[in-house]
Amino acid sequence: MKPWYQKAVFYHIYPLGLLGAPKTNHEASAACRFDELLQWIPHIRDLGCTALYIGPVFESTGHGYDTRDLRLVDRRLGTNEDFKNFVDQCHQHGIRVAVDAVFNHTGREFPAFRDIQEKKEASPYKDWYRGVNFGWGSPMGDSFGYEAWQGHYELPCLNLQNPAVREYLMDTVKFWIDTLHIDGLRLDCANVLDFAFMKELRSRTASMKEDFWLMGEVIHGEYGRWVNGEMLHSVTNYELHKALYSGHNDHNYFEIAHNVKRLESVGRALYTFTDNHDEDRIASKLREPDHLFPVYQLLFTLPGIPSVYYGSEWGIQGARTRESDEALRPALSLKDMEQKTGPITDHIAALARIHRDNPELHDGTYKELLLTNRQYAFGRLGENTMILSAVNNDSQPAALSIPVPFPASQAINLLDGEAPSIPVENGRLSVTLPPSGGAIFKLREA
After folding, report:
1. Last residue in a domain, options 140, 158, 176
2. Staple 391 to which of 19, 59, 90, 438, CB 3.0 to 4.6 Å?
3. What range(s) does the Glycosyl hydrolase family 13 catalytic domain occupy (predicted)?
């Protein structure tokens, strides 16, 4: 039986933003914002998503990645018990839950760091952080220096080569699995995490929970260095993310097809997305609003594990500024947003259903069938079946004759279940694609 994550459709939530939590954590007691989040579970299910990536959720000072306590849910969201109940409710609706794991660094209010501030060389935690040096002071006014993530001294880097740190983090993961019932982790800054640490994490979590999923945030590099049998199950496919919007803005499907071929060896395992909490909304990146339709069709039919970022199912916009990412992480009322349900919401739900019901889209072999600047068709081949996906980024209809790579007589339209099947004649499927649209067909060997 396939692991759940190989056939998952993810929904992605940045909870501090979605729930309108205070920007800085000065709370004396825990809030009750998970009560509001519970209302989103039926929406996530009805959209067709079978998994949720939510984070960060660790107790933190500000944006969530400046952790104070790795075993406490951020009090701006609620209590550990609130979160456990939320996870259990997700499970009852058939939704797995993965959380952000911020293991590269902590905030300055993390107990180990504060102990170094207080006790200096006498602190038993002086080797818990990288580059601690009592011969100079940090830009933050500390009497010692240390290595910080990308020079942000509010984020001191943990020393993952220290066995005590590794053991603490492994125990923390076990706590989140045993106590809060999570199903996976998204490793923040996986591109700079210690490889030996990630290998140990893979080995240890395999015995903690069956089919526990490890996905890493990797922007640049050869993804196969991280995605393999020893380390991570998946990483973020930023290459495809970039190609999806620029390939449409430039009317250049060659860029997308080239990316898919380049990543073919690991593509099915990669976490694919159109936008997230660090990237401008896809509706703000596309020059042609109608290109949302072929973009999402490609997201759900190309190799990968597709993800929808909260709010984008309604086509909302949002762009970061030099000073802030807040526009990417807005507070939303589900009741208000449901009034905005329209064609793009329905399109995503239909695509999620197609992805769920057709195993060719989970592990089928990719085969390019037709490619021009403005039209692109490919197959996802199973043993005796194929899903054929074809898209058009032109403002005019496109009549195509697409080669079919195995003997089939009929093609069933999956995006329009009421449409009659189309005959395959002389090994080719003739179809007219709508402007800024596409079609998805199921074919079986004759």
Report:
1. 158
2. 438
3. 12-355
Give per-residue pLDDT as tens, 276-299.
Answer: 999 999 999 999 999 999 999 999
HEC string of 182-249? CCEEEECCHHHCCHHHHHHHHHHHHHHCCCCEEEECCCCCCHHHCECCCCECEEECHHHHHHHHHHHH
The residues pairing with 215 across neighbouring beta strands, listed in sequence order, are 186, 234
User: Could you report the per-residue pLDDT of 371-428, keeping only the tens digit for each?
Assistant: 999 999 999 999 999 999 999 999 999 999 999 998 999 999 999 887 889 999 999 9
Q: How remote is the C-alpha of 6 from its chain's centroid?
A: 13
Write out the DSSP string of 279-292.
S--HHHH-SSGGGH
Q: Are residues 92 and 115 in the same domain?
A: no
Looking at residue 417, what is its pLDDT?
A: 81
Contact 10, 52 (CB under 8 A): yes
Residues 6+ apart with CB under 8 A from 420: 413
Count of other CB atoms within 10 angstroms of residue 124: 11
Residue ending a domain, choose from 339, 362, 385: 362
Beta pairing partners, 236:
271
Q: Please tell me whether residues 243 and 375 are part of one structural domain.
A: no
Dig out the tokens for 398 from the structure.
Answer: 């496109």
Q: Domain containing 141: what range?
A: 109-158
Torsion of CA 291, 292, 294, 300, to 10 degrees: 160
Token pair for residue 68?
């104070």
| Sequence-ordered alpha helix ranges (H) in 69-162 | 80-92, 111-119
Long-range pairs for 142-146: beta carbons < 8 A, 24 or more residues apart:
142/117, 143/117, 144/116, 144/120
If one counts the domains in the chain, the total is 3
Cβ contact 231:198 at 8 Å: yes
CB distance 82 to 72 below 8 Å: no
- What is the C-alpha to C-alpha distance for residues 385 and 408, in angstroms, rounded to an integer? 9
Q: For the CA atoms of 300, 302, 304, 307, what is the dihedral angle to 10 degrees?
A: -30
Give yes or no for a contact between 272 and 302, defined as CB atoms under 8 angstroms apart.
yes
Whether residue 235 contacts residue 270, with contact meaning beta carbons closer than 8 Å, is answered with yes
Question: pTM value?
Answer: 0.97
Alpha helices in 93-191 (DSSP H): 111-119, 163-180
Look at strands 96-101 and 184-187 and give their pairing: parallel
Clarify whether residues 82 and 132 are in a common domain. Answer: no
